[in-house]
Amino acid sequence: MATKRKTTGRKGIRRIRTRSTSKKGARVSGRKTKIPRYVYYFGDGHADGSGSMKPLLGGKGANLHEMTRIGLPVPPGFTITTEVCSYFYDHKRTYPPQLEARVAAALARVEKSAGKKLGDRDRPLLVSVRSGARDSMPGMMDTILNLGMNDEVVETVAKKTNNARFAWDSYRRFLQMYGDVVMGVQKRPGEDHEPFESVIEHLKDERYGKHDFPDVRLTAADLNELVQRFKALIKERAGKSFPQDPRAQLWGAISAVFGSWMNDRAIVYRRKYGIPHDWGTAVNVQTMVFGNMGKTSATGVAFTRDPATGEKVFYGEYLINAQGEDVVAGVRTPHPIADLAKEMPAAHKDLMKVRAILERHFKDMQDLEFTVEENHLYILQTRNGKRTGHAAVRIAVDMVDEKLITKKEAVRRIPADSLAHLLAPIFDRQSAREAKKIGSGLAAGPGAASGHVVFSAEEAVARSEKGDKVVLARIETSPEDLRGMIAAEGILTSRGGVSSHAALVARQMGKVCVCGATAIQIDYQKRTLSANGTTLKQGDYISVDGTAGEVFQLHRPRLCKCSSLALSIQKRASPIRSTQN
Asked: What is the pLDDT at residue 413?
């Protein structure tokens, strides 16, 4: 759980002073001043940085360097430091004069390691560009995958892999992310759907008669057509064409990721969790590995322990033939991580080894992202996992028992608001039995919540400001829904799993949440929710049980003050608390 910090209150970003290993320098006032290094490489078992360098490399970057050092399978890449973010905002969104050459040198090392080159016609390199602040801010800043794709490269990839569907799928994904993040093709006021998703749904309607036709069944020809329509959409809305030059793509993506540090949702998130605005973000550029190459490839998100309850079980989800954004965005409802043992036993066995290594090394519950490319496992990220109040207490107590941490460390790891979450109310059993159950999904945020159902973040905020209690119902949530999620008593989604954006943010906030309630139909235009013969209009009462994953047509259910799980955890935590008094 994140804890609040005292912020600077400044809107801008000040330069972060850090020590540098660079030997080059310049004379200022008669003294030699070191020029910051700015770029740190990792790959092939070597890393310029380490896990102790989070202020400079950001949390994601520091952990990529650390995982490389301890021998985990991390694709090669480089980190552009938070110093560059500070310079970017202090100098009207420009870069230090040394940066271009240092990025080029680091990219050359990545190309040598991968045996491929960015933009090369014969052996093209594709990379991801991702943010990475000192403290984890899940979904609040931007990510771009498959960078380097263009009209020539897609043909090369199709020929080299003998998999045209994979090539065109990767290209359409890149266009969608780049068009959104870099070129600003986003939903306009009054629009309920993302413009690229609307294009996809229209094509499915035209060719298959239903807009919920599975993405994985779209053919190479379908995806080729989506690429053409996406490029037309970008030109129409952005007023310029999508850039074909991979180097131009790279610098556009780097600037967009640095720019996302000051987007509205990131600012709202930092204010809520007391993260200083002047910390800035790092940018990580990393060789792509692909989970969308067919049935031997997959992508997923996993937690080394259950982030909702704290139980010591491997917890997470994955999708076959997909990329990471599919899992987090909640566009498809993934499979439980335990199923991977049957579908990809070798990859699952390797993943279980990685789980043990990460917990032993970082001595905390880890949230990791992984990709399986043609049966080979790669780890793309690890971080201390966001968790509910229940889980925070239980994990701390268990890790003391396991001798991973001391009692003193355990107490420091339990923020005060975690204890408040332990006392969150749950539905009285008799009340729940008497209510009409209209659906069920995945229990993503424990507790009980009731209120007026609303279908947009804006409506949730407006009603909350008038004193109404609301439950936000979305097909899936996105980072743009953050204000509404903060305002709501509970969150309900019809798509997505326990690793989706809705579940991740709800756990951190201590919000009641039910995800992936697939039998519930949400109609944004009509502002209705339908399931089990019941239709609720916007403003009608609804109740969600985030402990059991159930949804009720219930106005004012009776509540219990505390769950039996909370009581048992409190009892186990008592000896730890008493040693600190």
From this structure: 85
Rg over CA atoms, the chain? 24
- CA distance to 106, 119, 354, 437, per residue, from 113 (Å): 11, 16, 23, 56
Place of tokens 């780097």: 254
Share of the chain above pLDDT 90, in %: 66
DSSP summary character for residue 450: E
Residues 127, 148: contact at Cβ < 8 Å?
A: yes
How confident is the model over 202-239, as pLDDT tens digits?
A: 999 999 998 879 888 999 999 999 999 999 999 999 99
Planar angle of CA 5, 410, 7, nearest 5 degrees: 5
Q: Are 104 and 112 in contact (CB under 8 A)?
A: no
The token pair that represents 279 in the structure block: 């910390």
C-alpha distance from residue 158 to each of 162, 165, 362, 529 (Å): 6, 8, 40, 42
325 three-class SS:
helix
Q: Walk me through the domains of the chain, giving residue ranges and CATH numbers.
A: 1-12+34-150+247-288 (3.30.1490.20), 156-244 (1.20.80.30), 298-384 (3.30.470.20), 389-422+565-579 (no CATH), 426-561 (3.50.30.10)
